[in-house]
Amino acid sequence: MGIIAIYQQTTDEELEKLKNYEEIGSGWRNVEELQENRNLDSCDIDKMWDALHFLLLGKSAGEPVENNLINEAIVGQFVISEDAFGIRADRVKAIAEALQELNFEEYIEKFNMSDFAKNNIYPDIWEYEDEEDEIIEELRDCFERMKKFYLRMSEKGCAVLVLVC
Fold it and tell me: What does the pLDDT read at residue 1?
């Protein structure tokens, strides 16, 4: 299967509860309960989270960029648990604005699969040069879905739970 990233609608209050639950050891169960709520909006970018981070920031998601809205859009604002991260509603609004202003095509123009391979960017698909167009399209699609998701969350005044598992 591999490691995927899912972004889910939540509230600041729920994020605070999850942080507190994690401190007493029951946080993951509560994250799973929240994730199972089908009434909440979500965005699944599958395995392209590290690739998007590298494309937009020049670093793997394992090397977070402090105080950077694009970084936070992909890997969260703060840690809840090993696999769960949170973004408060006020920061979601700033992230949505930053994503709306970002010219994704400028980054795609500089796309070079060998750079991703040299930096061990997940997923390990960079040797498939004959699939470059499909990979670019998948990156573009993931970015657009993420951008629309953050805009919806901003308009609703929601926080976001980021799950990388």
Answer: 46
Nearest Cα neighbor of 128 from 147, 107, 113 is 113
**What does 101-132 look like in DSSP terms, one character per residue?**
H--HHHHHHT--HHHHHHTTPSSS-TT-GGGH
Other Cβ atoms within 10 Å of 6 Cβ, number = 16
Here the CATH number for the domain that contains residue 70 is 3.40.1760.10
pTM given for the model: 0.91
Boundaries of domain holding 32:
5-164
pLDDT at res. 26:
47
Which two three-digit tokens encode residue 153? Answer: 């969350």
* Angstrom distances, CA of residue 92 to CA of 39, 57, 61, 135, 138: 19, 19, 19, 27, 23
C-alpha dist (Å) from residue 129 to 57, 76, 113, 123: 22, 31, 7, 14
Contact predicate 96/149, CB 8 Å: no
The pLDDT tens digits of the residues spanning 64-96 come to 899 999 999 999 999 998 899 999 999 999 999
Q: How many domains does the structure of the chain reveal?
A: 1
